[in-house]
From TrEMBL:
Protein name: Uncharacterized protein (TIGR00106 family)
Origin superkingdom: Bacteria
Domain Thiamine-binding protein residue range list: 3-94
InterPro entries attached to this UniProt entry: MTH1187/YkoF-like (IPR029756), Thiamine_BP (IPR002767), UPF0045_domain (IPR051614)
GO cellular component: cytosol
Length: 99
């Protein structure tokens, strides 16, 4: 499965920024060893249900350590029997664009 998620603290720093708290969540994801990527809006992670959800919970806990309230947006693509889809899905779209 692939999960796209976004975590943010309820309040930012003195400039309204949330990058330090979000970076803590991304550190958790990267340390998990699961395939992942981060873009301007979401972090994507691929793996089995239990391992992906455990990482999402750890990432939420990391943000909760610096904020009394945390927002989580999560979208999942559940397709049993498929792996490597974090890149394969994009490759199929790119190929369709040149066909």
């Amino acid at each position: 499965m692939i999960v796209a998620f976004s975590i943010s603290p309820s309040a930012g720093d003195e400039t309204g920024g949330v990058s330090e708290a979000v970076a803590e969540a991304v550190r958790v994801v990267r340390a998990s060893g699961l395939p992942n990527e981060t873009n301007a809006m979401f972090t994507n992670i691929e793996g089995e249900w239990d391992e992906v959800m455990a990482v999402v919970k750890q990432a939420v806990d990391a943000v909760a350590a610096v904020s009394p309230r945390v927002s989580l947006v999560l979208k999942a693509d559940i397709r049993p029997g498929y792996t490597g889809q974090l890149t394969a899905k994009v490759e199929r779209i790119e190929q369709a664009l040149v066909d």
